[in-house]
Write a structure and sequence with these properties.
The chain has 542 residues and is an alpha/beta fold. It has 2 domains: 233 residues, no CATH class; 238 residues, Carbon-nitrogen hydrolase (Nitrilase/N-carbamoyl-D-aminoacid amidohydrolase, 4-Layer Sandwich), CATH 3.60.110. The protein is 43% helix and 15% strand. It is built from 17 helices and 12 strands. The strands form 2 sheets. It has a 6-stranded mixed sheet. α2 runs antiparallel to α3, α2 packs parallel to α4 and α3 packs antiparallel against α4. The longest helix is centred in the middle third of the chain and has 23 residues.
Length: 542
């Protein structure tokens, strides 16, 4: 143990002494290391390495640099640039789907987005240096400011809470269970403190090594693991035996999906994968789920809805992603929607043997749209630059009214389309808690990269924080059945064509976080501030 502590001390002192481009390189590398703790790598020790490096670099700026604000900002920016470049590189892949039009814009996503997002950790480090200390409490200072700017990143300019620190724990069902109590921001704050705490082993005094911060960090992570094991043990997964779910993953390449000439071919692939080969669901109610924008303008396609009715059992309902419009005209507004299709009770076959088309009994319009992907901010200016083609339709999709609770087969569910599942605390209407969540997505834009895998982890966190099972249908994967405690019961991997047939997991009691929301995170922050102030006050009195 002493040998390891001395090695950490030597590394820490070396990092502290870095200046100029060496400091920037250490910061960049620390950010990349922290990002590799996320999906699909899950190198969790690198989360500790990354944030310890950031603490030591801040030590060096505080001790040795005259222009502390500038140097602190630059250090945090290089850390953030490495973190977001390594963690979100896959965003640039979407520009190669229509490479002839947009490939030249890929560097904006590859480098421009990380450069912008890096401003958040840059400001966090800069402000933390104003309250820096020599002792271990500097870890609380940095973790607190870093966490606050993670929260701001999740809310400013519509928010982008992607790869929050807590998400590093989402590679399995055990580690993220504290999300049910603390939420992603509160749990992320705890993980930040525990990850950065070993940096306090470096005391700055020659020959002195502080062992307790490393021990405290190890015990803290052990506690997280034990808490997860216990919570999963006392909350076993149970199923609703009267409901069967059939999740379709058609695996249609994005170039083919947006080709209108292939509309019928793509539609029939969904239909064929929805058939149960005559087995049916018995006396159970059956819910078939298709992914985001499975069939464009399905609400207007009467013949297609007739084919669906003829292909599914009589006890089946269909939930499908679809682009819809408010009227078939040149001035139509378009929506990225989810439709519920069910039969009339009086639906029977006519003399020719055909079934009446299934009817749209409910719909939901995505309300949290992706900037530059589903709508264009500053549309007029971008149109003059010839970039209006970035919008999927006309001036882009029209946002819906907000979260809704819909009904299908006598059950309530909350619909979330793609990007909407990444927002903590915004998964369902609080006054109308559903039985489960359905999230549909199309991650085909991003290829076989970290993006779809990180997206799945977001869904796992939403299941844990809400206590609701999540049924996830993705065009090219990863489709999954996630129970109310975040266990992935079944999945279809990337670029697999097929379907999942399963019972619907039962929801659990409402978790503490879903009751109190981010107030618990605010209380944790206030606790840190009060603790730091009290220590400062006592030291002044002594």
């Amino acid at each position: 143990m002493a040998f390891g502590a001395k090695t950490i001390t030597q590394i820490g002192l070396r990092v502290r002494s870095a200046r100029g481009w060496r400091r920037a390189l250490w910061a960049f590398g620390g950010g990349v290391g922290a990002a590799l703790s996320m999906a699909p790598y899950y190198f969790l020790p690198l989360l500790l390495v990354g944030f310890c490096v950031l603490v030591w670099l801040a030590d060096g700026v505080w001790q040795n640099h005259k222009r502390k604000r500038f140097a602190g900002f630059a250090t945090g920016w290089w850390f953030g640039f490495g973190y977001f470049l390594a963690g979100m590189y896959w965003m640039s892949f979407s520009f190669f789907v229509q490479a002839d039009q947009f490939a030249l814009l890929s560097p904006l996503a590859l480098f421009g987005l990380p450069a912008f997002l890096a401003l958040f950790p840059a400001l966090a480090v800069m402000l933390a240096l104003k309250f820096w200390r020599k002792d271990w409490l500097r870890v609380l200072v940095l973790a607190g400011f870093y966490s606050v700017f993670e929260y701001l990143r999740g809310h400013i300019l519509t928010g982008l809470p992607w790869n929050l620190t807590a998400q590093a724990m989402a590679g399995n069902a055990v580690l993220p269970q504290m999300t049910a109590w603390l939420g992603p921001y509160g749990f992320g704050l705890l993980v930040l403190v525990l990850s950065a705490l070993p940096a306090a082993m470096v005391t700055g005094k020659a020959g002195r090594v502080g062992l307790w911060p490393g021990l405290a960090s190890g015990l803290g992570f052990a506690g997280i693991f034990l808490f997860g094991l216990v919570r999963l043990w006392i909350h076993p997964s149970t199923d609703n035996m009267n409901i069967e779910i059939h999740i379709v993953q058609p695996n249609i390449p994005q170039r083919e999906k947006i080709d209108w000439d292939l509309w019928q071919q793509n539609f029939m692939r969904h239909v064929d994968l929805s058939r149960l080969d005559g087995k049916g669901a018995g006396d159970k109610r059956l819910i078939v789920i298709w992914p985001e924008n499975a069939v464009s303008l399905l609400a207007e396609a009467t013949n297609a809805r007739g084919v669906i009715a003829d292909s599914l059992p009589e006890n089946a309902a269909l939930i499908s992603g679809a682009v819809r419009r408010d009227a078939p005209s040149a001035d139509s507004r378009y929506y990225n929607s989810l439709l519920v299709l069910e039969r009339d009770d009086a639906s029977v076959r006519d003399a020719s043997g055909f079934v009446a088309p299934m009817k749209v009994t409910a719909s939901y319009d995505k309300h949290h749209l992706v900037p530059f992907g589903e709508y264009l901010p500053f549309y007029g200016a971008l149109k003059r630059l010839g970039l209006d083609a970035l919008a999927p339709v006309a001036e882009g999709f029209t946002p819906g009214e907000g979260l809704q609770t819909l009904e299908v087969s006598g059950l309530k569910f909350s619909p979330l389309i793609c990007y909407e599942v990444i927002f903590p605390g915004r998964s369902y209407k609080k006054e109308d808690r559903p039985d489960f969540i359905i999230t549909i997505t199309n991650d085909a834009w991003f290829g076989d990269t970290a993006g779809p895998r990180q997206h799945l982890d977001q869904a796992r966190l939403r299941a844990i924080e809400t206590g609701l099972p999540i049924m996830r249908s993705a065009n090219t994967g990863i489709s999954a059945v996630i129970d109310a405690q975040g266990r992935i019961e079944q999945r279809l991997g990337l670029y697999q064509q097929g379907a999942i047939t399963t019972k619907l997991p039962q929801k659990s009691a409402t978790p503490f976080y879903s009751i109190i929301g981010d107030w618990i995170y605010g209380l944790l922050l206030m606790g840190i501030v009060a603790f730091l102030w009290s220590r400062h006050y006592l030291q002044q009195k002594m």
